[in-house]
Write a structure and sequence with these properties.
Blueprint lengths: L6 H17 L10 H13 L12 H5 L12 E3 H6 L1 H17 L2 E5 L5 H15 L3 H4 L11 E4 L13 E8 L10 H10 L4 H28 L8 H5 L4 E9 L11 E4 L5 E6 L6 E5 L2 E4 L7 E5 L1 H6 L9 E3 L7 E8 L6 E2 L14 E2 H11 L6 H9 L6 H6 L3 H4 L4
Parallel strand pairs: 1-2
Antiparallel strand pairs: 2-10, 3-4, 4-5, 5-12, 6-11, 7-10, 7-12, 8-9, 8-11, 13-14
Helix pairs in contact: 1-2, 5-9, 6-9, 8-9
The protein binds ligand L2PXNNRO, 2-oxoglutaric acid (AKG) and fe (ii) ion (FE2).
The site of the ligand C=C1C[C@]23C[C@H]1CC[C@H]2[C@]1(C)CCC[C@@](C)(C(=O)O)[C@H]1[C@@H]3C(=O)O has 13 residues, from strand 6 and helix 12.
Organism: Oryza punctata (Red rice)
Family: Belongs to the iron/ascorbate-dependent oxidoreductase family.
Keywords: Iron, Metal-binding, Oxidoreductase
Length: 412
């Protein structure tokens, strides 16, 4: 199913949301100034007695059994121990190998991220989402890109809207000369204004810390797949990564059983490193036909394998379906760091002895373009993307939708 709408539809939807908020009769105060009024309207949207129709998800998506008591067994991998000695690495390798061959979720402790930095990043997100709509809209997501602020993705989709607000920005690996060191800080001051410089610096530092964490994780994953020698195929592959950082805010919801904070999906990225604020749970993984909650260890990050890494392992490590539910009374925040390769790197598993390739070569730029312009990331993104890249020879219509062959021929 394709949900991408054009800008006109999107603005109609925002108008509809505004109308819905007004019609609901909960608009407490009408202020004279348009910007302030808009802020009240969105706050009121989250406070409707019933959720507006575009937020209602199909029963099939929300009705599968959710077993709040059957938490998913998500091992805690001690990264400090893995770096310290061979025994620590062996244990980490065994833990990730087991988790990634089944559901692709594990946690990491001993990661070296100062708790004060994690706190500052979470508090910064809380402060940002409390701003009036007009202030947040200064960072509004541009069509076709993955970065910026969105409320419910209402600028892109017209149905199955997620009950959340998000702020996303890119993080590029600093090159050897130290350039690009302030890409996140610059993004904050240039879009939101100079008063957000400090918050930008917090996220700059947080993204750099995430990059370090993912390097260690890649070393462990490489070892576990037998390609650890000489720095490791995967560690090197992500040396010049180009990642996406996303702050999620899930407001309390009057009908949590009819909607979702983030719908069922597999992350298109390579790895996701997730930090949840406090002990409000919400992340669930579909394992054995039931949605199983992931209850994070305090101080640990939850990591999951995304489609790009699944392709890099030729399907050995799984990118698993997950979602985020919302609650009637509690709000929830999470920070997701999506590790992605440099845009033009060719995603291809290391040469394996005669293994049949499950996915064609592709670049992250192609997969991004697919998820941002042609397809809404869902339960089958990677398969749909592979078909889009290599449509069956007999399907003329599909060929027209596919990307130019030049991108497929790109070399590392
Ligand atoms: C390439 C991307 C698509 C999404 C943002 C990045 C990484 C994760 C993807 C996403 C979070 C998966 C769930 C659905 C989505 C639409 C969302 O609810 O936010 C996804 C992102 C997106 O296209 O914005
Ligand atoms: O907020 C969460 O717990 C998960 C969000 C998620 O899966 C995502 O942003 O890709
Ligand atoms: Fe996700």
């Amino acid at each position: 199913m394709v949900y991408i709408s054009n800008a006109q539809d999107a603005s109609k939807l925002v108008v509809a949301m505004v109308e819905s908020a007004r019609g609901g009769g909960t608009l407490a105060a009408k202020r004279g100034e348009a910007d302030d009024d808009a802020a009240v309207v969105v706050l009121d949207l989250w406070r409707q007695p019933k959720i507006p129709a575009p937020f209602v998800w199909p029963r099939a998506d929300v009705a599968l059994p959710s077993s709040p008591t059957r938490e998913l067994d998500v091992p805690v991998v001690d990264l400090a121990a893995a770096l310290r000695d061979a025994a620590g690495m062996r244990r980490a390798v065994a833990q990730v190998a087991a988790a990634c061959a089944s559901h692709g979720f594990f946690q990491v402790s001993g990661h070296g991220v100062p708790p004060s930095l994690a706190r500052a990043a979470l508090d910064g997100a809380a402060g940002f989402f409390r701003l009036p709509l007009a202030a947040k809209q200064r960072a509004r997501r541009a069509p076709g890109t993955v970065t910026g602020y969105t409320a419910a993705h209402a600028d892109r989709f017209v149905s199955n809207l997620p009950w959340k607000e998000t702020l996303s920005f890119g993080h590029r690996h600093a090159n050897a000369a130290g350039n690009n060191n302030s890409s996140v800080a610059d993004y904050f001051s240039s879009t939101l204004g100079d008063s957000f410089k400090h918050l930008g610096e917090v996220y700059q530092e947080y993204c750099e810390a995430m990059e370090e964490v993912t390097k260690t994780i890649m070393a462990v994953l490489g070892e576990s797949l037998g390609v650890g020698g000489g720095g490791g195929y995967y560690r090197e592959f992500f040396e010049d990564s180009s990642s996406i950082m996303r702050c999620n805010y899930y407001p309390p919801c009057p009908e949590p059983e009819r909607t979702l904070g983030t719908g069922p999906h597999c992350d298109p990225s390579a790895l996701t490193v997730l930090l949840q604020d406090g002990d409000v749970d919400g992340l669930q993984v579909l394992v054995g036909g039931a949605w199983r909650p992931v209850r994070p260890e305090p101080g640990a990050f939850v990591v999951n394998i995304g489609d790009t890494f699944m392709a890099l392992t030729n399907g050995r490590y799984k990118s698993c379906l997950h979602r985020a539910v919302v609650h009637r009374e509690q709000e929830r925040r999470s920070l997701a760091f999506f590790l992605c390769p440099r845009e033009d790197r060719v995603v291809r598993p290391p040469a394996g002895a005669g293994e049949r390739r499950l996915y064609p070569d592709f670049t992250w730029a192609d997969l991004m373009r697919f998820t941002q312009r042609h397809y809404r990331a869902d339960t089958r993104t990677l398969d749909a993307f592979a078909r889009w890249l290599r449509p069956p020879a007999c399907s003329g219509a599909a060929t027209a939708a596919g990307p130019p062959t030049a991108t497929q021929a790109a070399t590392v």
